Amino acid sequence: MVEMFREIAESAMGSSLSNVSDSIILLMGIVLILILIVAIFAFGVQIVLALKYHKYNKKQNSLDMTGEEIARKILDDNGLQKIKVKSSGSVLFGNSYSHYFKKVRLRRLTWKKKSVASLAMASQKSCLAILDKEDDPDMKTRIKLTPIIYFGPIAFIPLIIIGIILDVIIIKGQSPICTIVCSVIGLLFYLASFIMSIKVLKTEKKAQNKAYEVLKNSNMATDDELAMLQELFKLYNIQYINDMIISLLELIYRVLQIVAYAQQNSSTSSD
Questions:
Q1: Most exposed residue of 17, 109, 189, 219, measured as fewest CB within 10 angstroms of its CB?
Q2: How many domains does the structure of the chain reveal?
Q3: The most confident of 3-7, 76-80, 247-251, by mean pLDDT
Q4: Among 31, 41, 33, which residue's Cα sits nearest to residue 242?
Q5: Which of 73-82, 105-114, 211-220, 260-269 has the lowest mean pLDDT?
Q6: Which residue segment(s) compose the domain that 94 sits in?
Q7: What gap in Å lies between CA 226 and CA 229, rounded to an integer?
Q8: Residue 187 predicted with pLDDT over 90
Q9: Which range has highest mean pLDDT (108-117, 134-143, 185-194, 222-231)?
Q10: 3-class DSSP state for residue 84?
């Protein structure tokens, strides 16, 4: 089994790992298997979520209002007239709230739809703006470190490339020290992104709870609709947690890759 994992790891890294210890190879294999298992589970959750979203997006809400109208009402009722409500077909942003651009973004299917799904998304994203107005401490931290959340994981590969180039130009390929240092910096960005993901989940759940309270206290949703909202929110949270677990496993795998790379180069240098 170790040899099979070694072949898989060599294929992934594109280099020989003959001098890497069996324990590191075994750990890399176990992490890859865990990533596959979690990814399969996450795919199943995505299917269930898509079906539920489609179902509730076809069911008209009791307010007979579009997502845009619902978001506008909640924002105006809470003194947030300056926050705009815009449609978004973006894969990156989707249904979201932007502190920097002062707007709530809703997907086109949610924006003009008078559905229960529109009620859920419009109310929850509007409540993120309310948390921002209330200076919620978790929301403040999320806003300050938003760039790390999006670009932290992306920085890993470019930093490795920079390290390799520095090793070739400065050290003339005699040592992988620059590659290792840049890889560690990349891992720190990756770790910061993971930590911030926890903060994002916390604020999303706070906004979900606030949306539930706002809709209930203002009689903007029936008991059945509130139950549907909770079901949708729960699925979204499970999906987000799955993504976080995969990110953590990827982080562990990156660390093991660096250790394997260091072991391989250390052995090669000593020869």
A1: 219
A2: 1
A3: 76-80
A4: 41
A5: 260-269
A6: 2-11+19-270
A7: 5
A8: no
A9: 222-231
A10: strand
